[in-house]
Specification:
397 residues; 4-stranded antiparallel beta sheet; homodimer
């Protein structure tokens, strides 16, 4: 029996482990100091009341034979109508018309982001931005695909644009971006869609953070761009939209008009899902179906506004210090340039030692992340304010 | 962009679609007749009260900041300690000692059954039984692996044994079996473990139905066999054990001692899961953690006893008709030989037309299923009794 040797080519990421170990060592050495983590990548606010109520009702449904739910009604998209309809409605509000058959319910964006590759040949060239969410890279290394990088840097505001001289088959875009917080305008995405159509390439569009977008010139779905249904799959999540990181629900849009070599990618994905997946919890789906209702959107809007205020506090702090950054306005992430030409780890150590504040070194996301640093908006207002005061004090010293 | 062309080699299974269409047509033609489905592959009894209570409490945890749960505590096994400990306890009661690090929590056996192949080279030869749960076959066709079949038939009681002349790298075993209900004794599994160790092969052992086993000579886990930790991965599910088909929770055991080419398969699977999965709902996990408690086992035992009684009714009916079958005793499935030399579809039509009873034609599970027919124990006592009376009347006519 032979293992998949591509796994041996994976680099172990010690980024978060090293951040954790350094933070723990610091706490042991300075038990009296209050450490504030602006490195949190997880949500911290509880689920919205409409979601809680819907999930309690769904649990009760499972307690009685008459209302009990077994396998999901559809063995390809796995979605209950109530959830599918609410997703169609939410797209309609973004000006995008989808069909029910375009939607596949999943246990989260990360799963689909990896699993979607099952339907694509290993003999494709992949284009990923640098810096990048490591999942895009590692899932393709596992499958042995050739990988090219699109340089994101201060010059392009960490929003790389297509290079007509580069030939790619599969293109990853994430907007608003993790880790940089930078978000493409509709005009910029138009160029990517044009490039993909020209090259017969497929865009895998990660929209996990779209709910943080307020600026109407920015895209909230790639399908807001004409032609995208012929070249893009969009992967969406309730994790950051509605605090579902521990509940696990996402949805992936594979438009029925999306074909390659005369084959429907929608049908390929349906076949993949019917064979290698068995749906998302009924209870989870009923909770998710409450999110895009009128009252649901109001309630999750409050949570997102809370995180947005943290992002504003961080951005304002950096503005007053004259520090260059991306994100913060339409994203829970702030990607700042390390002050005084410091390296990512150098700044990490300085910030921890002198301000007891923890962030994430940008170099952990790719070579272009060196000299940059990620802060997140998922802590409390109080802690975020205190952290920015400490950073200001440190950098003005 | 090239698609994965292996998908084009998949055969579409029209088995359940055809069963559904024929049944619907019959109902339209005979609206007065009461059709009984002994083709149900899904559970029908509601969740146990301990599970319902645990899930309500978990939903409440998600409503408060202090008790809210985001991403799972461990980004490789994704299990909460309460659940992991309960699984270790349940194995201990089967006489199997595992370590916490051997267990990976999933959204169900079907997902893991397909996804586990990610860590194995496409250049392996796979041995699957015929007839077979289609997932084993299709997931390997998708990856382009060479597939061999182990013939299951009346001669071997639908329990094929290893053939030392056949060279295989990956071996699928499911016991008690879907679709045949046949279950291996520990002695028989010993031969499979010996064969796998000799050949350096890997057994993928599907234990989804182990809770239906009462006969102590039959295996409930492959790790009851010495040496299995060096050659087998076991895939388990709460679906049939505790009625979780709509809740989605399973667990996969990849023993830490399991290595190939000096590489730990446990570490490969951990890397796969940390990259392409993000865990199972906290609410689901808390429900599952209630299953293997003392009260939980008592309550799910009642549900399983209910299904077992249906299996007994079916078996007794077939016994009195002198019809050969496998399963029914330690399994919710009964795999009967079609009477009078009939083909699977021929018997399906006869049974539907003359007795208004629906089953599943065995030929849909592989060539060796021709002439056989699957009945299931998931209907009510009343319907099961009525169906068997109709079958007796039909066959004695």
């Amino acid at each position: 029996m032979k293992i998949n040797e591509n796994f041996l080519k994976l680099k172990d990421s010690y980024l978060f482990a090293t951040v954790g170990a350094k933070t723990a060592a610091y706490k042991r050495a300075h038990p009296d100091r209050e450490v504030i983590r602006l490195s949190i990548g997880d949500v911290t606010l509880p689920l919205a009341p409409v979601v809680i109520d819907a999930m309690h009702r769904a649990v009760d449904d499972m307690a009685n034979r008459a209302t009990f739910k077994g396998y999901a009604p559809d063995q390809t998209c796995y979605g209950y109508d109530r959830l599918l309809d609410s997703i169609l409605d939410s797209y309609a509000r973004k000006g995008v018309t989808l069909g029910k058959g375009d939607i596949f319910i999943s246990d989260g964006a990360k799963s689909d982001c990896g699993n979607i590759l099952d339907i694509l040949s290993a003999d494709n060239t992949v284009l990923v931005p640098d810096p990048v969410y490591p999942v895009y890279l590692d899932t393709n290394i596992m499958a042995g695909r050739k990988i090219l990088f699109a340089d994101a840097n201060e010059g392009n505001g960490f929003l790389p644009m297509p290079d007509p001289n580069v030939r790619a088959d599969i293109i990853y875009l994430c907007s608003p971006n993790n880790p940089t917080g930078a978000a493409y305008t509709k005009e910029q995405l138009k160029a990517w869609v044009g490039y993909a159509l020209m090259q017969d390439a497929l865009i895998l569009y990660d929209a996990a953070y779209e709910y943080f977008v307020t600026d109407s010139s920015l895209a909230r779905s790639i399908y807001q761009i004409e032609g995208a249904k012929n070249c893009a799959i969009e992967i969406c999540s309730y994790s950051k939209t509605a605090g579902f990181t521990g509940v696990r629900c996402g949805y992936t849009i594979v438009p029925q008009e999306l074909t390659r070599d005369g084959v429907s990618l929608n049908k390929l994905w349906a076949r993949r899902q019917s064979t290698k997946f068995n749906g998302t919890s009924y209870i989870t789906q009923m909770g998710a179906a409450a999110v895009f209702t009128e009252e649901g959107e109001r309630q999750i809007g409050e949570n997102i506004a809370y995180y947005r205020e943290n992002a504003r506090i961080i951005s304002a702090g950096l503005d007053s210090l004259g520090i260059w950054y991306t994100g913060g306005k339409n994203s829970p992430y702030i990607w700042m340039k390390c002050p005084n030409g410091m390296g990512s780890w150098e700044f990490f150590d300085e910030l921890l030692e002198k301000a007891s504040v923890v962030g994430t070194p940008g170099c952990g996301f790719g070579k272009n992340g060196e000299g940059f640093f990620r802060l997140t908006a998922f802590n409390t207002h109080e802690n975020t304010l205190e952290a920015m005061q400490r950073i200001a004090k440190l950098l003005k010293a």
